[in-house]
Amino acid sequence: METGGSTTPAAGGEQGVPLRIRRTASFRRWYAAQRDAGNVLLGASPVWTTAAGNESGAVFFWALHVRMRVGAEDRVKDNEVVISRPDVSVVALYRPGPSLDETVVVLVREFRSPASTSDGYVHELPGGSSPGAPDPLVQAVDEVAEETGLRVDPRRFRAHGSRQVAATVSAHHAYLFSVEITDGELAWLRARLDRPLGVEADSERTWVEIATYGEIRAARLVDWATLGMLAEALKPR
């Protein structure tokens, strides 16, 4: 973790943004969106960064305290921190049922330190990110294989676009995909529910879970963001 970093000459408030943050795709997209909306970065100071878990030294998470002129309101807002990370690819694997609530969904269970759940785990759709990922679809295919063990042909993935996941917390986006799996694939996954998966080198250990959409809602099994992504992925075409 670091609290600063070198900068190169830049205009206006961008001068306070360390070069390694300015180089990230997540900062460039956030900054472009703010400028396109007519807002002006008046000042910025780094709060912290964390590096990716590889030898590149690339920034993974970053946080900036910013001073923004809100163009549409002609006022300055300077009491917030912008946090971001690389975009994620998320995949809803499902088997249609007689009704929406009977549709079967594949989740992964993983211990994540921020979880404030009854079991200390997050229950979510397969997904993730890596700095410099070549393409959201490629990332999606790889994440499904890593976290569920199932390798799916990319041509079967249906894209639902990207949105911010928690707009008041982080600037990053999630690219949502869905795949209708077969009865055979569902049976294959059910037979492996007790097998840990994930990338141990990244301290990632995932477990496949299978539940109907109705069970997910009734048991409050996932967070609001995941429930929203499922609503989008499972809606009638």
Automatic annotation (TrEMBL):
What InterPro entries is this protein classified in? NUDIX_hydrolase-like_dom_sf (IPR015797), NUDIX_hydrolase_dom (IPR000086)
Instruction: Give residue ranges for domain Nudix hydrolase.
Output: 84-231
Show the coiled coil region(s). Answer: none
SUPFAM superfamilies annotated for this entry? Nudix
Q: What is this protein called?
A: Nudix hydrolase domain-containing protein
